Structures are given as C-alpha cells and as structure tokens.
C-alpha cells in the first residue's frame, strides 16, 4: 500500500503546466489522503490556472502514475496557487496561435433541445457518423458536461492521449470525439459552477488537436443554461439544429432553444423530429406514440424546415464492435440519418 511520502515522491517530479517547475519545487501538492481498506489515494494539487486542458493533461498523468504504483482508485482536486507563488514564478506565456475558433474551413453545428429525454445525444452521434460516411471530416464535442454520454453511446473505450501540449481526440466511426467523460474517474459526478464549465469548453476548442475538419458538432446540454450561453458567446457563426419529439409540450419547450439561437444570430438549419412514430414489424402499421405535428409546428415558429423524422427503433448491436446507439448504414434509421446528413451538407455548401 502506498504511503503519503511515496505519493509525494511519485508526483513531486511532475511539472506544473504553466510555471514549468516541478510540483515539489512549488510545494503544490497541498494534500494527500489514503484509504488503505479501499486502496484509494486522494490528492489535492495547486496549479496556476484551473479548468484548462493543461489541468486535464496533468490529471491524466497523476492517475496513470498512481495506478502504476499500485493504487486501485484515484481522486484528484485542483486548487490555485497563491498570488505570492505566482508572482515569484510567473513566466511570460506564449501568444495563442491559430486554433479551431478562428478556423475558416470548419463549420460549427450545435445540436440543441429545450428539454432532456428527446434523444438529442442520439441524434448528435448518428448525424456525426452519417456526415463521416459521406466523406466529410467530422469532429464531435460532448458539450453536455454534466450529462456526458457520447463515449458510451459510441462504444468508445479508449481515452485521449497527450502529444506535446495538445490533447488528441479519440476517433470512432471516422469521427474525432472529445468529452468530459474521458477525464472523469469511474463516472464520478461533475460539481462545477458556470465559469468552470466555460473554461473547460474553451479548452475543448483551443487545446485539442483537431486538425483540418469540415464540421464540428456540439452536443449541447438541454435548455438555455450556462454552457449554451458560452457556446453562443464563443461561436458567433455557429449553425444550430433543434431536436424535439412530436409531443406539443416538447416542441413548445424546444422553441426556447431555437429563440435563443435566433437572438444571438445563430442560424437554425432545421428541426429533427425524434420518436416520430412506432412502426410494427408485424403489421407495418404506424402508431404515433407521442402525438403528431410537434416538429412541423416548431419549424414553422422558427421559420425553418423539418430535416427528418426518426421513428422509434433500436440499432442492431454487434457484440464484437459494440456501440449501443449507432445505427448501421443499411439500417432503416441509418438511411434516414444519411438523408439528413445530405440535407445538412447541401444547406452548408
């Protein structure tokens, strides 16, 4: 079992990412706690700036080192170094170069909804995969930082790696993916206030090595909260797709997300109506479980079009290449997603 002194020795040689001195030199390992019965190590580390990709990189290094040394589980908290330490050790930071936010070749597409439970994340992952199947270079940010689900939905088991000072996104089905889920230990809850969410989202844009991509999709959290506001601030030319079910209440609530997009000069590309109906495999009869007309009413209110209607149906699961929410290209819904992807690409050409 690890001791506190061993933990401090293991982590002490790691470099603080902004001041470029070791954690030991900065006395930055503020706290070490060890639960021997669970073989759990918990540490608190102070750094110059929290809520950044550099923090995520350091977190990955800390977890890997402690697990290699024998810890079963690792908990990490980050704090900020004191003003006195910063003043003594601060170095000039390099100017920001070209990044995704000032790219002229990438189109940003936010997938939004007014409420949870309408299948927004399912639409996000399948639309991203469909665009990749059309030969487009696609990235996907799981911006639903509290309710991240994209890695699980796409069957992603790997984590990003760090190359130089950049995080390399994980590729699956031809889509480059980044998610808060990659940086959370054992599906732990995220307990952050709004400003921290904005910092993390900014890191996903600036500190990830996306390369040249045609479309970057953002799976937004439902509603019009902090993350959605940050996206509208960071991306003045973002396009949006609003997801709803046919139910009148869902469409009514989704109209708020659409109205927010319009007020911030984001172009609404269209509406996708999810769970539009259930079609019996025995009789072929369609049952409109959640009613009818919600998508059309929402599109009319937002002065846009319905890009597609998706029935209730589950993907065909492949146990060897498991991705529980991705529809195969020859699946009925896979074909509908390809049609939607073609419409979206046509609208953006």
What does this protein structure show overall?
The protein is 32% helix and 22% strand. It is an alpha/beta fold. An eight-stranded mixed β-sheet has the order 8-9-5-10-4-11-12-15, with helices on both faces. It has a three-stranded mixed β-sheet with strand order 1-2-3, covered by helices on one side. A hairpin with a 2-residue loop joins strand 8 and strand 9. Helix 6 (194-206) crosses helix 7. The longest helix has 17 residues, at 332-348. The N and C termini lie far apart (59 Å).
Brief descriptors of the model:
single chain; 349 residues; 8-stranded mixed sheet; 3-stranded mixed sheet; 10 helices
Q: Can I get a quick summary?
A:
The chain is α/β, with parallel strands linked by helices and 349 residues long. The chain has helices at 4-12, 53-68, 83-89, 120-133, 150-153, 194-206, 226-234, 248-263, 294-301, 332-348; strands at 29-35, 40-47, 73-80, 107-112, 138-142, 161-163, 166-168, 170-172, 175-179, 215-219, 239-244, 267-274, 278-279, 286-287, 306-310. β11 (239-244), α8 (248-263) and β12 form a beta-alpha-beta unit.
């Amino acid at each position: 079992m690890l001791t506190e002194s061993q933990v401090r020795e293991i982590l002490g040689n790691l470099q603080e990412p902004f001041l470029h001195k070791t954690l030991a030199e900065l006395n930055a390992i503020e706290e070490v706690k060890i639960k021997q019965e669970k073989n759990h190590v918990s540490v608190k580390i102070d750094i110059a700036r929290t809520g950044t990709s550099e923090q995520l990189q350091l977190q990955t290094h800390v977890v890997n080192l402690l697990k290699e040394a024998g810890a079963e589980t690792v908990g990490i908290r980050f704090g900020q170094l004191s003003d006195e330490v910063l003043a003594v050790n601060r170095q000039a930071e390099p100017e920001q170069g070209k990044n995704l936010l000032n790219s002229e070749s990438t189109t940003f597409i936010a997938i939004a909804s007014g409420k949870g439970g309408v299948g927004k994340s399912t639409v996000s992952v399948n639309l991203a995969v469909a665009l990749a199947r059309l030969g487009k270079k696609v990235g996907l940010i799981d911006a639903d930082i509290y309710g991240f689900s994209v890695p699980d939905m796409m069957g992603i088991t790997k984590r990003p790696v760090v190359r130089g000072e950049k995080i390399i996104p994980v590729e699956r089905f031809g889509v480059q993916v980044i998610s808060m889920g990659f940086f959370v230990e054992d599906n732990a809850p995220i307990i952050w206030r709004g400003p921290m969410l904005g910092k993390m989202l900014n890191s996903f844009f600036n500190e990830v090595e996306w390369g040249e991509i045609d479309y970057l999709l953002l799976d937004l959290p439902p509603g019009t909260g902090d993350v959605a506001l940050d996206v509208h601030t960071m991306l003045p030319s973002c396009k949006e797709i609003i997801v709803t079910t046919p139910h009148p209440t869902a469409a009514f609530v989704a109209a708020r997300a659409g109205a927010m997009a319009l007020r911030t000069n984001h172009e609404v590309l269209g509406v996708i109506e999810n769970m539009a109906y259930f079609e019996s495999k025995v009789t072929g009869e369609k049952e409109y479980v959640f009613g009818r007309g919600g998508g059309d009413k929402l599109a009319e209110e937002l002065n846009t079009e319905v890009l597609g209607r998706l029935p209730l149906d589950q993907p065909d699961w492949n146990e060897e290449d498991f991705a529980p929410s991705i529809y195969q290209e020859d699946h009925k819904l896979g074909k509908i997603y390809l049609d939607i992807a073609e419409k979206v690409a046509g609208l953006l050409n």
